[in-house]
Amino acid sequence: MALLSVLLSFLLVVTTHVTDAQRGPRRCLILTEASYHHPVRSPPPGAGPEPGDRAPAFQVPTLDGKFSYDPAEGSLKESLVIHAFTNKSGFLECLWSSESSLRSLVEGLPDRTQVLFLSLDDSAVSDALWMREQLHRAAADSRKEVLTQLHFSPVPVFALGNWISNVLYYWGCMGLNCGLSQAVFTSDGWKMPVIVKRLDARYDWLMGHWSTKTYQLADAGDGCEPSPSLGGAVAWVSEGNCSFFTKVRSMAKSSASGVLVYSLPGNPIQDMNCAGEECFFPLGIPAAMVHQEVSVAQALQSGKVVNVSFQTTPSPNFFIGIDQQGALAEMGWFLYPSFSFVNWQAQWFEFSAGLQSKLQSPATVIPVFDQVTMQGDKGAVATVELPSDLWDFDTLELDVSLSCPGRRDSSCAQWDHTVQLFVCCDQLSPYCNTELGRWITAFRSASSCSLKSSGGCWRTSVNKEHHEDQRTRQKGTGHWLTDVSPLIPVLDSNKCTFTMKTVPWAMPWLASLNLRFSVSNQTGVVKLRPFRVMSLYSGGTFDKNYNKGYQPTKIPILSSTKKVELYAVITGHGSDENGCGEFCVTSHHFLINGVYNNTHTFDSAGSALGCTMRVKDGAVPNEHGTWLYGRGGWCDGLQVDPWRIDVTKQLNMSDFESNTIVYFGLFNGQDPNPAQKPGNIIMSSFLIFYK
């Protein structure tokens, strides 16, 4: 209590005023002539700390004592997320008032992550007390121990006196988790517009966007039933009595240009979303939620014309991170108001730290590319000599990175694309142009602000004996270990050409590639080594003719063969009326000898959170678009893991040509038969023979 009294006394001096701690929902922001806030513009790159820079040490007072961060104290073992709250944001109001959001933080925050909560406002004392109360209440019946990882500072950001303020303002943005989204109301007789915070409906539910024009506002009651034609006005409706979907659908039928749902007195702004089958019903108008504003309601009730327009004022960033290597990191897009996005980013920090530990193991590294521009039909190409003792190794891992031209996520290429690595060591060899690895770029680029995204850095390891990776670390860079050991036999010459490419129209990436050769440390088992690779089937257009081209193939087995493995890399892309092949559940079957059906099913494709489950494996979180959804064998910003099955016991190993294999792919247990725009399957499949 003595410490808190000192802090409160200090803050009475440095802040303009201190308000009482608020126990209920945060009130709406109303800007008047006296309080109008000028937009905060992001300084140009080069004016301050950038992602990847080392975070300096700092200390801040908190409600429970002093919080210290000092990377010089030794090896870093924890990551840190810094969150700056402001009551001017409808997004943050919902984030902090949603029970599911609060529970997600206390139940899902990784053990090796600390979170520091700050306030951008001069009500920092009451904000800190309120945030602590919200999270303590959320943790009361679940994971109380997480509270030791949460720290609440009553010192406003503008009074911190350290580098944090600089980064929050310098990385300011207008993304889905920052920037001040506002509704601006005007009416004849008002001296000033009334400007209130707003929260738009989920982007993946309502695709409509507010235009820059001014709309007329029309009172439509609770919006649960269609009204007489609104003639292009924005409907002003109250919350309650029916779902958000019903309100928006009813107002769309009434010819509204959009819907503004206002909260009832005492209620917070909510996350407007659909539920169940509602989500498949197309609605073409935008919608948002605001607090009820008395002057707007009174003007409409008295028959006055009220107009509304929509704006987003840039703000300081609400979230920044420091990874477990002590590097500053962007936190990316929070696609809706939930602390789950903090957890996912923290999980990615955990994955990255674990990988850095793995990278300390010794290996022989062959550099192939180093920050080479990958773009166009050619891609990135290099020819290198392989180790003379290649066959002494039994492990080959790909150390691949794709980085962005600049240090901010905003410089990264847009969209998620397939990246493939091909190798050719002998133009006359059947192995020439074999696909050695596949990855999917992350989608985190934006033109207006520093948001989350880089493609991905699929690091499969580095050579401790040669060098430690010192490349610039950006938030938009991911690392993965890609083990392609079964394909060592395709490296059938001492000099090989490697080609890495994506679609030719994609924006440029800077590609780096190392080959990492090593010997596994298995003990007590007989080591078998791959000596032959038999190419099987490729994919194609996923339509009614997809399976017609696949015929049974004989499997010749040499007498020296001790083991046979099925090895396939399969991904589904495109979207027909069933979402195939990206968002539908497809199954891929390799039938051996007409009896053994080896099946690989993409059972998480199309699920709402399928790819969030892969963040722990290295999938890059908090991207643009629908990165969260499960997909057909892949996720944004993740390597495509080879599917490997030991099929030795399914074969007659004593007969050279009596074995057969055939492939077919199905949707819902049947041949695909889309009515329009069929998707496609990209596949490389092999049998690997060991001796």
For the record, give the distance between the C-alpha atoms at the N and C termini, rounded to a whole number.
Answer: 72 Å
Number of helices: 8
Q: Would you report the number of β strands?
A: 31
Going across the biggest sheet, name each strand in turn.
7-8-12-11-10-9-13
Question: How would you describe what is shown here?
Answer:
This protein is of the alpha+beta class. The protein is 13% helix and 29% strand. The chain has eight helices and 31 strands. A seven-stranded mixed β-barrel has the order 7-8-12-11-10-9-13. Strand 27 and strand 28 form a beta hairpin. Helix 3 crosses helix 4. The radius of gyration is 28 Å and the shape is globular. The N terminus is likely disordered.
Question: What are the salient characteristics of this protein?
Answer:
single chain; 691 residues; alpha+beta; 7-stranded mixed β-barrel; 5-stranded mixed beta sheet; 31 strands; globular
Short description:
The protein is of the alpha+beta class and 691 residues long.
Which helices and strands appear, and what pairs or packs with what?
Blueprint: H1 2-14, E1 30-31, E2 58-62, E3 65-69, E4 79-85, H2 90-97, H3 99-108, E5 113-119, H4 124-139, E6 150-152, H5 163-170, E7 180-187, E8 194-200, E9 215-219, E10 234-238, H6 244-253, E11 258-263, E12 287-291, H7 294-301, E13 306-313, E14 319-322, E15 328-330, H8 340-358, E16 364-374, E17 380-385, E18 395-403, E19 418-424, E20 434-440, E21 482-483, E22 495-501, E23 509-518, E24 530-541, E25 553-555, E26 563-573, E27 586-592, E28 596-601, E29 643-646, E30 659-667, E31 680-690
Parallel strand pairs: 4-5, 5-6, 9-10, 10-11, 11-12
Antiparallel strand pairs: 1-8, 2-3, 4-14, 7-8, 7-13, 8-12, 9-13, 14-15, 16-23, 17-22, 18-21, 18-23, 19-20, 19-22, 24-31, 25-30, 26-29, 26-31, 27-28, 27-30
